[in-house]
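thread: overnight batch results

M.L. [08:02]
morning all. the overnight job finished for the chain we discussed friday. pasting input first so we're all looking at the same thing
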Amino acid sequence: MLQVLRDSMKYLAWILWVVIGVFVLFVFVDFGRGSGYDQGGANDAAATVGKQKITYREYETEYRRLEDQMRERLGGQYTPELAEQLRLPMQALDQLVSRKILLREADRLDLAVSDGELRRYIVNLPAFQDSTGKFVGAESYHQAVRRLGYTTESFEQSVRDQLMLQRVLGALEKAVVVSDQDVEERYRQQVERARVRYVSIPFAASVGRVAVSDAEVQRYFDQNRERFQVPEQRVADYLLVDQAALEQSLPLTDEELRDYYAQRQQEYAQPEQLRARHILVDTAPQAAAAKARLDAGEDFAKVAKEVSKDGSAATGGDLGWFGRGRMVQPFEEAAFGANPGAVVGPVQTQFGYHLIQVQEKRAAMASPFEEVRQAVRTRVAAERSAQAAEEKAKTLADELAKAGVGARQRMQELAAQQKGLELATTEPFGKQGPVVPLGSAPAVNTAAFLLQKGGVSAPIRTPRGWLVLRLAEVKPPRVPALAEVREAVRRGAEQQKQRQQAFERLQQTRRGLGAGATLDAVAAQLGLGVQESQEFGQGALVPPLGYAPELARAALTQPVGTLAGPVEAAGSAVLYQVASRQGMDPVVFAQQKESLREQIEQEQVTSLVTSLINARKQELGVTYDPQLVKQLGIPPPRA
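M.L. [08:03]
and the structure it wrote out:
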């Protein structure tokens, strides 16, 4: 079933088949299907694309068509559960959205179908021709369309839409050019394979044994300055509404607190609790022996200290007070079901066998107002101060926006006039990372990089409260002084030296063995083992070596037996020998060349269609009926 699911998802994801491949023959299959909605509901919007509506009637027709195709494809393997896994309802909506977008694109490109072109197409459809191949005539045509459940106008509009979709596809196909080189490259990717034997020295083998001088650090920095470039940074002034100070200053009367408590009294209730002690042992016979001692009258605390393996044994098994949800379920059920003083058990849990004695119980009860007064006040103050801080930040943002170029001076005036306002300037910060002194505040990073110099942000919520930014400075990317990044440069120089040493060991060993050096001789000289890769093709992965693009490319062009390298592969210097290689067959390539070209063309057109649809979704905006999304139990799709 999992393979069926994978195959079906590939099948449904084939954009061209989904959007373009459903031509007039499918129209005949679907016409006449009942919508399942009354007239009003059928014409309501299930989704909108810009200003265009997708009706519930269109949605249900598309969904049923998808179901029919899946049943035809999968037979008895198709089930309602599989439909749910494939998200067919949302597939239907997505396909309709894509169709609306492409039809709009056809209009934009002036690819309309004239009445004459439409008429010529319809009269040549086999469904509307008699046994001699002639058009059946207007009356028979109208009757046939009505039998299918459509008016002549709605049928012809559907045919017109399909022809326009064909024209969009044709326009995109003209934009695709696949060269002979592209085709040959695809064939090589499919058929070329190689295996190598190799010896590797990891760069990390010399970690801790490589020292770099100040001169080497300076040289590495000079050669790699751009690698240490500091990206664009920004500096902002901000006014922060100190929510904590605002919270403390709020005047709250006793009456307000009591009203708040009365409306939420259940939130301050104390749940049922009990105090208990227990004995924990590993086996049922041990529990039975301890129970026998308790039944004989021995003190529970004494037995617990002697036999319990729990950390509470030192205090006679005392667990203190606890409510529901604190203990594992079997223990909790036994304890809360026991009477005070009674010993219950043994109760088995994943920890072992328990004997439990409940000492006291407290019924659930509402906490008196006097006991929770401070908690109530803290909560009321926090809620009101958060709202007040937001409102104050909005007022500040409006004032600063009106101040224009005088925003910085106005910030100083406001901070001096009003208590609870903090005026400060950040240190330079980037698009990501902490903003000193505000700490981690991603919303601040985002807002600052959307502003022009001197611009003022909307209110921003941060862990410290609400604030308003003014962008004070834009620092362009720069190469820092060595002193600022010395440690990072030193690590880079050290790693480069480790890499060089690994390569030099392989090169010197190979040279020392002369022109007839073999991989096995190099390995023996170094005291290393020879390893063998799995078969690999074009790409960057050479299992089990991992990421090795240079080796993969070279090995597919070198003769079997070639000793080559060293090259870098997966953090190691690698000397290798081509063990086997399968190249392209010119005869087979000539036979498959045109089919491969068509495949590549189709993929590129699919990519163009997908890119076009995604771009237009962003421009137009796509919305879905929330009631439908809720009814289907699926998340709204991303535009």
